Every structure is written in structure tokens, then in C-alpha cells.
């Protein structure tokens, strides 16, 4: 379905940047003018956990700046589906903010607690272990990087398909902010805003930034059994970042994020009459349903992190990241899409995770540079699935998965001297 919308930028003070993810060469300079030393615009990425330009990274990565995302009207990371080669990403069954992602055909479609995703999703260096709440809405973002292919060396065992890195906008050294309202068809009304800057004066060493977003849209269809909307959107989100800077060598940054998704039941289409319910043939509109289940699809995720950066000299940089995330979700899925309790499934999921990571970057500006890190993860995921088949309550599946992981990684580059 084609989306029509109108964006109104109010007081925008966003930093400018390159528009395209992978730039084309510029035209040749006019006669008598000296060609620039750089023919391609540079996008700084952290695909190998150290800052490099997009042209220097020897991996398959596509990066989008905030300006590019805005021009392409990317509302959440599922809108990158048609922008990145070999990427398939969409909202999983049930909630609008639960992600299903594949890169080069490798991924995971089942959002239950016992399944690890094949594509790792990261929010500001923090791994999001479960798909619930991982379909991140795009607001106040610096850039998004999509790494294609296995990334196990630097990103762990669960990134056999690739990784998606969402990098939010950093803490500014001067007061700035923006506000944006988007209206569109199907009653779309999105509001996004952010403001940040130094606290207590430019020389105080304290900076902060807060960003909020509310995304709302009417349903694409209707539940004709009870008149409720189908595939509507009601998502609120917020992020708070606070940083303390002791000169240019040491800083400590704290981050909080919150997402609340109260969108309604997702639409589905019956392709052929069900022999058990001949009175309910397929409907004309693909988004309309006749479900008798309660219109429940609720996802709430919360996260907190602290990052310490220390640069003892010009060649070394040490980073420590500690993070905690948790989520709770409830979803109803009517597989037969009729008022009859033929195949009605309800699910409730919980997730808690704690991670610690230490990174040491070395770059002396010569032929040798790299990163060494130690990563630790502890997680607990569980839930309950209630299966009602033929109104006989077949199955009540419950479980819990405990995960403890620790890894040591290194990635080093040696440039061959010029002959």
C-alpha cells in the first residue's frame, strides 16, 4: 500500500550530512580547475567497532544518514526493506513492533522466547536479544548501518545473517532541537521532537538530550465482527541521554529508552474457504477480518545503559558499556480470522537481559590498527502460549530460557607497505 503523507519541519536545527548511503562519483571538474582530493562524500561508520569511512570498510555495509532517512520517509527500520540489497524486514505476526528480519535469506521468523534471531539488532552498541520491541521507530537518529553477511567475529554467535545498528543522535555542545509533525491518509498523525545541549553553561562539562515520539494511524481494515480497527498504529517512545565530560579524555554517558506499543490486532487474509467454517468465505478487502478475539497486542520495552570512554593518549581508546533491557508483551492471533474459536492463539512474553562489554581500540595513524574486546551477556526470556483449537483449549505452552555468554574478540588490520 502506497503511503501518502506531508511533513512539517518546525525549528529544525539538525546537522547536515550526506544524503545517499552509497554515493556515486561526482562529475569531472571543469577545465582549468583542480580536482578535489576526495571524489566521494565520506560517511563515518562503526561497522568494525571503530570509526572508519564507508569507503574504507572491507565488509558489505550500507549506511544511511539522518538526512537520507528523512528524505526517504523511513518511519521504522522495516522501511529499509526496499533500500538495502538482500534485506527482508517486516513486523512479525502479532504486534507492530516485533521484528522479523532476514539478510541473504538467513534470519528467524518465530518470535517466541526459545528462538534466537539470525540478524542482530543493536541500539547504540547494546544488543537487543529478543524480537519484541526491536522494530525500532526512526526518530532523532544519527545514522543506521546494515551489515550484510556473518558478523560473528565482532558481533557474536547470533549474527549469522548480519547486523542492523541504530545509532541515535549524540550529545550536542550547543543548544539545539527540532520538532516535526507528519500527517497522512488513514488518519496518520506522527509527532517527533528533541532538544539538547550543555547543562549549566557551555563550560560545565554536562550535556543532555531528550527525544520523544508519538506515532498514530487508523487501521487499514476493520474487524467487521466488533467494529474495531485492524492494523492500526499507536506507539509512544522516548529517549534520554546525559553525559559528563572531564576534558577531552574522559566522559561518562547514561541513556534511557522506552517504547510502548498499544497498536491493535494485525490483519490477515483468508485465501480459500475453511471447510470447518463454510459460513465465513474469504472477504473482499485483504485487511478486513471477522475475529472474535480481544483486540490485544501490547508491547512495552525499557532499556538503560552507561558508557565510559577513556582516551589515555592519541593512539588508544578504551570503552566500557553496561546495559540492562527488559520487555513485556501480550498478543492475540486469530489464525482462522473468524468469530468461531477454531484456531485462536494468545501469547505473553517477558525478557530481561544484562550485558557488559569492554573495548580497546588502537590506531596510531600508521599501518597497524584494530580493536580487542570482552563481552558478557546474561538473559532470561520466557512466556506462555495459549492454543484454543475448536474451542477445546488444546495446549498451554510455558517455558523459560536462561542464557549466559562470554566472548573475547579481536579484529586487527595490517596494511602492506607501498612498494
Total domain count: 1
Average pLDDT score: 86
For the largest sheet, list the strands in their spatial order.
Answer: 1-12-13-14-17-18-19-20-21-22-23
**What is the CATH superfamily classification?**
TonB-dependent receptor, beta-barrel domain
Q: Which CATH class applies here?
A: Mainly Beta
Q: Which CATH architecture is right?
A: Beta Barrel
Round the Cα radius of gyration to an integer and report it.
Answer: 24 Å
Report the span from N to C terminus: 56 Å
The helix/strand class is mainly beta
Shape type: globular
CATH topology: Maltoporin, Chain A
Tell how many strands the DSSP assignment holds. 23
Q: What is the helix/strand order? A: EEEEHEEEEEEHEEEEEEEEEEEEE
Provide the β-strand percentage band. Answer: over 45%
Low-pLDDT regions: 1-40
Summarize the biggest pleated sheet. 11 strands, antiparallel
Approximate helicity band: under 10%
Structure explained in plain terms:
With 419 residues, the protein is mainly beta. The chain has a single domain, classed as Maltoporin, Chain A (Beta Barrel). 2% of the residues lie in helices and 50% in strands. The protein has 2 helices and 23 strands. It has helices spanning 66-71, 152-155, and strands at residues 5-10, 44-45, 52-53, 61-65, 87-91, 99-103, 106-108, 119-123, 126-128, 141-148, 162-168, 176-184, 188-199, 206-217, 221-223, 228-230, 233-246, 250-261, 297-310, 316-334, 343-363, 368-389, 396-414. The strands form 5 sheets. It has an 11-stranded antiparallel β-sheet, with no helix packed on it. The chain has a 5-stranded mixed β-sheet with strand order 4-10-11-8-9. It has a 3-stranded antiparallel β-sheet with strand order 5-6-7, with no helix packed on it. β21 and β22 (368-389) form a beta hairpin. It starts with a strand and ends in a 5-residue tail after the last strand. The model is unreliable at 1-40 (pLDDT under 50).
Amino acid at each position: 500500500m502506497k503511503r501518502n503523507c506531508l511533513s512539517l519541519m518546525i525549528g529544525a536545527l539538525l546537522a547536515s550530512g550526506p544524503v545517499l548511503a552509497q554515493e556515486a562519483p561526482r562529475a569531472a571538474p571543469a577545465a582549468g580547475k583542480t580536482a578535489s582530493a576526495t571524489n566521494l562524500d565520506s560517511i563515518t561508520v562503526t561497522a568494525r567497532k571503530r570509526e572508519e569511512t564507508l569507503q574504507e570498510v572491507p565488509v558489505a555495509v550500507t549506511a544511511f544518514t539522518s538526512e537520507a532517512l528523512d528524505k526517504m520517509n523511513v518511519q521504522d527500520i522495516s522501511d529499509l526493506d526496499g533500500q538495502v540489497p538482500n534485506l527482508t524486514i517486516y513486523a512479525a505476526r502479532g504486534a507492530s513492533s516485533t521484528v522479523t528480519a532476514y539478510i541473504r535469506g538467513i534470519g528467524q521468523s518465530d518470535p517466541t522466547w526459545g528462538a534466537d534471531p539470525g540478524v542482530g539488532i543493536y541500539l547504540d552498541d547494546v544488543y537487543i536479544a529478543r524480537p519484541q520491541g526491536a522494530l525500532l521507530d526512526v526518530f532523532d537518529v544519527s545514522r543506521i548501518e546494515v551489515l550484510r553477511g556473518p558478523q560473528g567475529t565482532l558481533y557474536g554467535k547470533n549474527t549469522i545473517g548480519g547486523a542492523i545498528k541504530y545509532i541515535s543522535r549524540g550529545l550536542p555542545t550547543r543548544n539545539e532541537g527540532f520538532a516535526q509533525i507528519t500527517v497522512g491518509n488513514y488518519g496518520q498523525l506522527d509527532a517527533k521532537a528533541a532538544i539538547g545541549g550543555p547543562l549549566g553553561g557551555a563550560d560545565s562539562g554536562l550535556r543532555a538530550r531528550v527525544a520523544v515520539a508519538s506515532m498514530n494511524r487508523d487501521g487499514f481494515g476493520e474487524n467487521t465482527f466488533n467494529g474495531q480497527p485492524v492494523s492500526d498504529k499507536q506507539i509512544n517512545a522516548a529517549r534520554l541521554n546525559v553525559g559528563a565530560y572531564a576534558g577531552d579524555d574522559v566522559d561518562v554517558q547514561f541513556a534511557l529508552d522506552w517504547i510502548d506499543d498499544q497498536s491493535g490486532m494485525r490483519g490477515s487474509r483468508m485465501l480459500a474457504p475453511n471447510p470447518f467454517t463454510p459460513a465465513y468465505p474469504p472477504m473482499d478487502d485483504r485487511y478486513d477480518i471477522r475475529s472474535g478475539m480481544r483486540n490485544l497486542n501490547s508491547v512495552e520495552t525499557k532499556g538503560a545503559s552507561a558508557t565510559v570512554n577513556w582516551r589515555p593518549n592519541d593512539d588508544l581508546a578504551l570503552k566500557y558499556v553496561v546495559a540492562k533491557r527488559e520487555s513485556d508483551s501480550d498478543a492475540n492471533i486469530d489464525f482462522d480470522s473468524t468469530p468461531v474459536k477454531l484456531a485462536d492463539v494468545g501469547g505473553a512474553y517477558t525478557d530481561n537481559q544484562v550485558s557488559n562489554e569492554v573495548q580497546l581500540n588502537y590506531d596510531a595513524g600508521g599501518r597497524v590498527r584494530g580493536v580487542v574486546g570482552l563481552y558478557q551477556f546474561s538473559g532470561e526470556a520466557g512466556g506462555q502460549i495459549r492454543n484454543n483449537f475448536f474451542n477445546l483449549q488444546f495446549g498451554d505452552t510455558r517455558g523459560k530460557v536462561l542464557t549466559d555468554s562470554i566472548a573475547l574478540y579481536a579484529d586487527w588490520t595490517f596494511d602492506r607497505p607501498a612498494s
